């Protein structure tokens, strides 16, 4: 270690660490504490401390002064509750439990204050090669660095020595990763203790955060779904065969199937992944999630932080790999790792420009903004907007600051390698008209993520963006989409709402749909179960069947509404919820769902249990079901069943409501 310069704290930093405790830093630690946490042995938690802080602050200040003077804590601080969490289904001995300690609030206050002080110097105390537990550093940066180094050594057949230093946490004892036999006190100070001491020798390959480091290229184990490292979507692209397996498992789970026992998938998976306002279920597509997570690496390549992994990328793939929104083929040499190839080609099968078009430069002094290859004026790159001028320019690598001049007559110092052709001459005035109004400031340039109002990158906005790019055509029109979005807000059991969603799409197992899927072959077997007069389609079963018409008539009489033959189920739902206060609209939507659900259950009872058709029984089920659902939804309001039977609108409005009585005519 001769010649190695270790990080050292400055005199000011040392003084900051050992100075007497101030009341404001103690108050800050208490305000940031969660008041709902479990109490300590004395029975009080942080909610009590916050409520009576004016009475307690003097005593707490004395405690901190004593701790600062003696550097010792009272023995009572070592007293805490211990809870045992079973590690197996049927625990028999103490070793089958995981002990967790519940510390007292005074210990936590001191730990939080010390943590806040130490966090101010950790960035200068710990080398940049350590990427864990330091604010502003990312845990997976270390995984990327090690994988890039190992991958480079293997591809170039260069011998190298890799020293693995693993922080020894309190879970590890005697070289084995196991739970401790004694409960260990943990707090916000523990991660910093891990960084400044403790370690053991290990071997390669190993796992870090569940990700293989130094192992065989990650593609091969990912071929098997159950060997896929958890969280690998943060670092590398998930292979097609893996996300297809995950999608199949999701689809089987959605439709109630098991592995090897596939149920009918009534809805295309692309539609299921659409947002609810577009007729889908809002299920996240694992492929889109993976692309959104990888896009964060692309964004971090643009920022100005001096991370170790970014310096490694610059040295390995060149300067154009960092700080450039466009990563061309020149950034992917033959020794490029799988991780780098995934970063360069995120979403390449969707739209090559989806990332580029949503990243822009907020112009300041123009020193770090490429004139041709950055989006700094308008919504597109200037080289794409004026390709002929770009090909004629000899300043393709120049920045905006280099080309801008202070001359009032000539704002831009543009140079060309040849004279313009006739068809190119009119492009230069258009370019100058676009860029002449631009003025520079003394502020540094910065990148802006267009989908976010604050300009900061987020995986959430990226997921929405990629979902729009990768989505199929919307399953429903915007008007129908508003109805789909509304049914999820109406009170009802989840299975009823899911059935209503499926019904509006006409994706329920009626006999007509089963015949269309060749499950029922004979046409005569497709007749309605309730009336036996027409083919059993969704429109017939829930609207035009004489049993359904009778039920709807009874429901509209109950609601004091005029009833005429509706055009579709959409029409009934739209007219029921088209007017009134929010709760009333939700109540009407709930009644609509109860009617279709009761009709479907009655149809199944007639089909499979041999019951007789009884519209009055269906109507009675609607009344009872909606009464129970509304009581469960509206905790504050209560009504008796006979009140609900007489005036459901008044029960929805409440005792102080104006009531509801109107007549609707369906066309």
What this model shows, in words?
43% of the residues lie in helices and 5% in strands. The strands form 5 sheets. The chain has a two-stranded antiparallel ribbon with strand order 1-2. It has a two-stranded antiparallel sheet with strand order 3-6. Mean pLDDT is 81; it is low at 168-184, 197-201, 217-223 and 655-667. It has 4 domains: 11-125, no CATH class; 141-171 and 187-233, no CATH class; 289-466, no CATH class; 478-653, no CATH class. The longest helix has 28 residues, at 582-609. α2 crosses α5 (105-119) and α23 packs across α24 (546-558). With 667 residues, it is mainly α. It holds the Pfam family zf-RVT. Residues 457-552 form the Reverse transcriptase zinc-binding domain. This is Ribonuclease H protein.
Can you give keywords for this protein?
two-stranded antiparallel ribbon; globular; 667 residues; Ribonuclease H protein; 4 domains; two-stranded antiparallel sheet; mainly alpha; RVT-Znf
Number of helices: 29
Distance between the termini: 88 Å
Radius of gyration: 33 Å
Structural shape: globular
pLDDT < 50 runs, ≥5 residues:
168-184, 197-201, 217-223, 655-667
Strand element count? 10
Q: Order of strands in the sheet with the most strands?
A: 1-2
Element layout with pairings:
Elements: H1 11-18, H2 23-31, H3 46-51, H4 53-70, E1 81-86, E2 97-102, H5 105-119, H6 122-125, H7 141-156, E3 165-166, E4 172-173, E5 176-177, H8 190-196, E6 200-201, E7 206-208, E8 211-213, H9 219-222, H10 240-254, H11 269-272, H12 286-302, H13 308-317, H14 338-344, E9 359-362, H15 382-385, H16 387-392, H17 400-403, H18 427-435, E10 446-449, H19 459-470, H20 478-487, H21 494-504, H22 511-516, H23 538-544, H24 546-558, H25 569-576, H26 582-609, H27 615-633, H28 641-646, H29 648-653
Antiparallel strand pairs: 1-2, 3-6, 4-5, 7-8, 9-10
Pfam families: zf-RVT (PF13966)
InterPro entries: RVT-Znf
Domain Reverse transcriptase zinc-binding: 457-552
